[in-house]
Amino acid sequence: MRIDLGMSLSEMAKKANKTSSYFSAIETGKRAVTEPLLETVISILCQNRNDEKVLRVAAKETVETVDINLIGKTDAARDFTLSFARRFDELNDDDFESLSNILNKNNK
């Protein structure tokens, strides 16, 4: 999208108050996109809601790991989180849908 708009890497970095090497690492997949940076990039590049959607989907597809802060959590929360992490690769789409339904039950 940056290139389609004719914006150089250095211009993008300057507008976002980051270095060119920082953006280069993101564009080559060596560094993850943080939520605050995503919001900044959206504000710089997106000209409409579809552009924003495209960037959000692209950012989501680059996520390879998730960190969960367990500081101050109960033993039950810690046990569940660690058990979930250990068994994550064994879960199938039906399992994910069931868990998603449980997590989203208050949002309906």
Give the class from helix and strand content and strand pairing. Answer: mainly alpha
- Total strands: the figure is 0
How much of the residues is beta strand, in percent?
Answer: under 5%
Extract low-pLDDT stretches. Answer: none
Please tell me how large the radius of gyration is: 18 Å
Overall geometry comes to elongated
Q: Between the first and last Cα atoms, what is the distance in angstroms? A: 35 Å
Q: Compute the number of helices.
A: 6
H/E element sequence = HHHHHH
Mean pLDDT: 91
Largest sheet, if any? none
- Helical content class: 55-70%
Quick overview:
With 108 residues, the chain is an all-alpha fold. The chain contains 6 helices and no strands. Helices cover 58% and strands 0% of the residues.
What's the arrangement of secondary structure elements?
Blueprint: H1 9-15, H2 20-27, H3 35-45, H4 49-61, H5 75-87, H6 93-103
Q: What distinguishing features does this structure have?
A:
mainly alpha, 108 residues, 6 helices
How would you characterize the overall build of this protein?
The protein is an all-alpha fold and 108 residues long. Helices cover 58% and strands 0% of the residues. It contains 6 helices and no strands. It has helices spanning 9-15, 20-27, 35-45, 49-61, 75-87, 93-103. Helix 1 packs across helix 2. The chain is elongated. The relative contact order is 0.08. The model has no long low-confidence stretch (mean pLDDT 91).
